Every structure is written in structure tokens, then in C-alpha cells.
């Protein structure tokens, strides 16, 4: 299973344009166009053939480009304004999208074909998505804007596999996945002001919640999985997910500067993760 990256927000007049001050940051490659309305989310996924940029937008279109050649490789029609996640599944780049229609669809980005049945019942809006692997099975994980729950669907079995408890009292806005001591963990950020972890195989919460901050990224620092959160004071905090998973109930989670090696410089890098984005649909769009 390859790494997925967190979607980012885009300009609302089409993406790929250079912003203010860009004269000091030369553009790499050609401008990628195709969205008619604003880009809601953006992520990347690496595979054997290269690196793909995947984006979704307000009019409900999912596009993917090969960043080496600038070639558009996927043009899919979907729902609008929701979540986006991407990862490798059996060596092929896959994106999962969902939105105001409260269902999630996964896509093979190279063939343009949908994978499995839609994952439904997410109310009222799919707010966050990730694609990961649980016990050797490729799954899509979705968080609802208002139902406070996680929904997990098996891509191969074409069916839901359950809704692990989250402990949240408000909607899930951000979501990332990683592996802690051999366990596939979903880390969720909610409007209730907490960030929580849950074991996707055992369907149980792990550790105590991180409070007062909103989850922004699940990544690695010095080889160890961490969560990066931001608070109302605009400060960033890095949380050690390994310590959080092993801590007894009632023990507050620990922040960390470098969980892998106290003497080595902290060098964060991406691992499997996903966050809010936009939604995808059920059929391919006609070529532009």
C-alpha cells in the first residue's frame, strides 16, 4: 500500500497559476488546467509509473495528471464539495471521493473504473477520506460532517466493514491513517475540539484524545508516526502516536520534538494519510 497525501485548498479561479511573489519561485512544468470552478481539494499519489496530482472541484469533477509529462490521465464526473483521499492499491493509484450525496466511491485512476460498490449512509456530508490497508485488505475510510462516526468499506469485498467508535461529539473534519506497532490507526479531528485515534481492525479507540487543537496532518518524524495539530493560538503541536497508543487509559498524550532519536534533527515526511477534499461520482466524464 503506497502513501497518500493530505489534500490542500486551491484557488477559486482554477488551479496551477502562480501566486503573488512567484517570480522568486519558478514554476516547474506546465500549468495544469481543466476545472471550470474552484478547486476544493488536492492530493498526490506515487506509483511505479510516476507521480499523479489528483484534484476535485466545486462542479463535481475529479481530475488526475501525470506530473512528469503534464498529461491528464483521469477525468471523472462526481458529486461536489467533499472529501478526497488517494493511495496505492495492489500497485495501482486509487482515489476515493464523496460529498453532499453522502456516499463514497473509489476509482482506479489509470482505468477510470469505479472500484466496488458505493459506501453509503454518511450524514449529511462526507467531510474527510483516506485509503489504507487493514489486515491485508484495501479499505476506504470516511468521516461524516455531522454523524461523528467513521465508516469503513472493503474495496475487494465491495461492502462496509463497520463503523469504529470515535468518541467524537461533533462532525469529523480531518482524517489520517498510519501504522503504529503493526496496527492500522485512523486519526480524526473534529469540530468538538479533539483529535482521537482508533484501531481500524479492532474497532476500538486508542489512548486519550488530544484536546484544544485541530488535526492537520498525519506523518512521520525520525521514522515514528506523529500527528500535527494547530490550535486557536495558531501554534502547531506534534503528538507522538506510538506513546499515545501504548499509554494506559487516563494518561494524557505526549507532545514530542523527535520521537525517533532525541539527538537527531527532526525531518518530517509523509506517510499514509488523508484529509478533507471533494467528492467523486459514479461515471466517467466525456473527454474534454
Structure notes:
This protein has 288 residues and is mostly beta strands. The chain has a single domain, classed as 7 Propeller (Methylamine Dehydrogenase, Chain H), CATH 2.130.10.10. The protein has one helix and 22 strands. The protein has a five-stranded antiparallel sheet with strand order 1-2-3-4-22, with no helix packed on it. Strands 8-7-6-5-21 form a five-stranded antiparallel sheet, with no helix packed on it. Strand 5 and strand 6 form a beta hairpin. The chain starts with 38 loop residues before the first strand and ends with a strand.
Brief summary of the model shown:
This protein is 2% helix and 48% strand. The protein is an all-beta fold and 288 residues long.
Task: Please specify the SSE layout and strand pairing.
Blueprint: E1 39-47, E2 50-57, E3 61-66, E4 72-77, E5 83-89, E6 92-98, E7 104-108, E8 114-119, E9 126-134, E10 137-144, E11 150-154, E12 159-162, E13 172-180, E14 183-190, E15 194-199, E16 204-211, E17 214-221, E18 224-230, E19 236-240, H1 241-246, E20 268-270, E21 275-276, E22 283-284
Antiparallel strand pairs: 1-2, 2-3, 3-4, 4-22, 5-6, 5-21, 6-7, 7-8, 9-10, 10-11, 11-12, 13-14, 14-15, 15-16, 17-18, 17-20, 18-19
- Give the CATH topology: Methylamine Dehydrogenase, Chain H
- State the CATH class: Mainly Beta
Q: What is the H level of CATH, i.e. the homologous superfamily?
A: YVTN repeat-like/Quinoprotein amine dehydrogenase
Low-confidence runs (pLDDT<50, min 5 residues)? Answer: 1-6, 8-22, 257-288
**Residue-averaged pLDDT:** 75
Order of H and E elements: EEEEEEEEEEEEEEEEEEEHEEE
Strand content: over 45%
Instruction: Compute the number of strand runs.
Output: 22
Structural class: mainly beta
Rg measurement, Å: 18 Å
How far apart, in Å, are the first and last alpha carbons?
Answer: 31 Å
Shape by Cα distribution: globular
SS summary, helix count: 1
Q: Kindly report the spatial arrangement of strands forming the biggest sheet.
A: 1-2-3-4-22
Amino acid at each position: 500500500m503506497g502513501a497518500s497525501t493530505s489534500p490542500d485548498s486551491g484557488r477559486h479561479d482554477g488551479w496551477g497559476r502562480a501566486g503573488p511573489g512567484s517570480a522568486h519561485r519558478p514554476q516547474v512544468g506546465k500549468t495544469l488546467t481543466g476545472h471550470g470552478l474552484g478547486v476544493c481539494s488536492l492530493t498526490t499519489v506515487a506509483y511505479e509509473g510516476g507521480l499523479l496530482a489528483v484534484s476535485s472541484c466545486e462542479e463535481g469533477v475529479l481530475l488526475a495528471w501525470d506530473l512528469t509529462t503534464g498529461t491528464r490521465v483521469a477525468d471523472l464526473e462526481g458529486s461536489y464539495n467533499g472529501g478526497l483521499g488517494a493511495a496505492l492499491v495492489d500497485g495501482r493509484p486509487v482515489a476515493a471521493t464523496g460529498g453532499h450525496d453522502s456516499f463514497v466511491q473509489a476509482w482506479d485512476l489509470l482505468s477510470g473504473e469505479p472500484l466496488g460498490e458505493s459506501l453509503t449512509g454518511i450524514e449529511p456530508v462526507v467531510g474527510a477520506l483516506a485509503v489504507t490497508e487493514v489486515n491485508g485488505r484495501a479499505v476506504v475510510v470516511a468521516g461524516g460532517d455531522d454523524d461523528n462516526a467513521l465508516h469503513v468499506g472493503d474495496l475487494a469485498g465491495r461492502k462496509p466493514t463497520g463503523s469504529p467508535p470515535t468518541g467524537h461529539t461533533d462532525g469529523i473534519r480531518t482524517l489520517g491513517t498510519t501504522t503504529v506497532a503493526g496496527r492500522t490507526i485512523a486519526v480524526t479531528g473534529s469540530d468538538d475540539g479533539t483529535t482521537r485515534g482508533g484501531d481500524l481492525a479492532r474497532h476500538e479507540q486508542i489512548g486519550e484524545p488530544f484536546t484544544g487543537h485541530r488535526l492537520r496532518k498525519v506523518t512521520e518524524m525520525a521514522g515514528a508516526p506523529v500527528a500535527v495539530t494547530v490550535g486557536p493560538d495558531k501554534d502547531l503541536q506534534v503528538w507522538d502516536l506510538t506513546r499515545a497508543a501504548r499509554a494506559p487509559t487516563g494518561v494524557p498524550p505526549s507532545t514530542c520534538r523527535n520521537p525517533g532519536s532525541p539527538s537527531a534533527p527532526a525531518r518530517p515526511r509523509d506517510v499514509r494519510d488523508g484529509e478533507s477534499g471533494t467528492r467523486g461520482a459514479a461515471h466517467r466524464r466525456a473527454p474534454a
